[in-house]
Amino acid sequence: MVAVRPAEPIARRPVVRPVTADEEPEGPPCPACGTPNLPGRRFCRRCAAPLQTREQSAPLPWWRTVWPFRRRVRSGSGRAFRRTVLVLVVVGLLFAGFLLVPAGRYVFEDVRDKLGGTAEISPVRATASAQAPGHPASAAIDGLTNRYWGAPTLDSSLTCVFDKPFRLVGVVVYTGVSTKPEEFRQGARPTKADLIVTTQDGEVQKKAVTLTDKPGKQTVRTGISDVVSVRLVLRAAAGQGEGRPIAVGEVEFFKRT
What we know:
The protein is of the alpha+beta class. It has helices at residues 79-100, 102-115, 181-184, and strands at 118-121, 125-128, 149-151, 157-175, 189-199, 204-210, 217-238, 246-256.
């Protein structure tokens, strides 16, 4: 007889046994097929559908429904853009409020003065409340320092008028009859003055100025917008004497460019 190799055992197929009504557990029904499931199960024991659904998000506030803050269809899309716009809006509001405060506007314009350029601007005319013979007010704005406006007494004033408003960032004053040291002390020269600036809207700003008793230019920082006229009033002087008018060699004005 020939030996016969035993056949491999065949595993029995599982038999699906229907669930009787008595064996059905008590628990939440499946959202897909309605079969009850034990609490804590994640998938339905009959159709394998997920039992734990995502919680519905709370309704959005009204401001989140307005562009650009409203949600997009896809989750997370546009979030960085909305945050960027929100930051820009807040910064813009703070900046606008800062400019509405007078101190804020002053600081803003002062920074622009320091960062921007300057250029000389000439007045259209100059007049004086009083002047010594041969030394008219026009000599103070002719660009020459060897000619001067001669004020016969203290409290005399020189008024310069401009054709259009501008931002006055500084005033340069040359005192005395000459910029040469040997000729400077031969005449009287102002040491204190008031700078009275009038703007386009009629506002008047006054600045007390102390001038050093030496030849050469002396710079006075101002920083005033919409200027239409500047008046220089002499308050104190050195070297006064008989027949020696108080000399102002030149007055120059500078605007922001």
